[in-house]
Predict the 3D structure of the following.
Amino acid sequence: MRLNTIKHLLPVILALVTATASGKGFDWSAGVGYNIGATTPLGLPASIRSIGGYSPGANISAGVNATYMLAPSFGIGIGVSADNLNMNAEISTRNYHLTMNIVDGEETGTRTGYYTGKIRNKTRLTYLTVPVYAVYRPDSKWEIDLGPYVAFALHRSFKGEVSEGKMREDPYHPVISINRAEYDYSSDLRNVDAGIMAAASRKIWRGLAVKAAMRWGLTSVLNPSTRKIDLNTYNVYLNIGASYSF
C-alpha cells in the first residue's frame, strides 16, 4: 500500500470512526500517550553480542476510539491512532550478516558479508494504527481490551552506522578492516504492520482515565524477500497515556 493511498484512506477511516461513535449506543473517547519499546528480533541472536545503548525517540501517539456494549460488561470497539515508534540502539556484533557502504576502510563501496564490530542503528517509524477489539468492563472504572490491529506506514526509516570492525564476505575472502560504514534499509521496510494489542484503563475522575496498551507485532517489519540482514524484526511497544470519554 503506497503512501498516497494511505493519505486517501485516513479521512475515510476517521469519518467511519466518527460516524460510528456518534451513533446511538456508542461511547467514544480521545487519548494521547507515549510509546516505549523497540523494533527488535524476538530473542537476541548469537550474532548480537551485547547492547551498549538504547534511547527512545519522540514517540507520541494520539487517537480516538468507539465502543459498543453488547451487554453490561462485554462489548466491541474500534479505534484509529497516529503512532511514532522511534528508537536508537548501539550494539556489538560477531558474524552479523548485513550489507553496508564502506566509507573508510581497507576497501570502500558496497559490501555484503559477516561483520564483527559496533553498530549504531536509528529506526524512525510512523503508523496509522487501526485496532479492532473485544471489551470487558468488570465495573464502572475498569476496562480491558484485547484484539488485533493493522497499521499503515506513513513514514519509514531504518538506517545505521558501522565502526571499528571487520568484515568477511565469505570463508574464501580475506577479512576487511572497517573504520566507518553506513547502511540504509528503509526501502526494505513493509508498508503494513499487524499484530495483537492488549490494553487496560481505569477512570480516575469523571471521563478521565489512565491507560496502558501493549502492541505486539506478528509480522516482520523488514520484508523477508528484500531485506539485507538475516533477521525477523517486530514492533514491540508499550503505550502509557490518558484518555477522556465523551
User: Anything to note?
Assistant: DSSP finds one helix and ten strands in the chain.
